[in-house]
Write a structure and sequence with these properties.
125 residues, alpha+beta, two-stranded antiparallel ribbon, 5 helices
């Protein structure tokens, strides 16, 4: 997969153009959008990164199983997964019955910060 790196303003302009129907989404485009690096870092707490690692390592077949593996309450894990899914970090696919199977969708983020200008770049892999 070819990695496309662009500034936040370029990404925003491209996304708005796609949303308005002026152009098609790039092939293989991920549906991840981040308002700011600070927002991403608030979401990627050590506890949430532990949750992502557990999903990747253990391959749970349901949210309930993931909650048991982590020793956390299922509603808490479900709420966290919802936030991570909304940001594009996880996918919740249908499993047996009404279960949702969590899967890690983004494995690596790369930030390029320009400390003197607001030309930060985020690369998703």
């Amino acid at each position: 997969m070819k990695l496309k790196i662009q500034s936040m303003s370029e990404l925003r302009a491209e996304m708005l153009s796609v949303a308005r129907g002026e152009r098609k989404a790039p092939a293989g485009a991920r549906q991840a959008s981040f308002e700011s690096i600070e927002a991403v870092m608030r979401l990627l707490t050590p506890e949430n990164r532990q949750l992502l690692a557990a999903i990747e390592r253990e391959k749970p077949v349901s949210v309930a199983e993931l909650a048991r593996l982590l020793g956390r309450a299922e509603p808490n894990v479900s709420r966290t997964l919802g936030k991570l899914a909304a940001a594009g970090f996880v996918r919740l696919r249908s499993g047996a019955g009404r279960t949702k199977v969590p899967e890690v969708a983004i494995h690596r983020l790369t930030f390029d910060l320009d400390l003197c200008r607001q030309t930060d770049r985020v690369a998703v892999a």
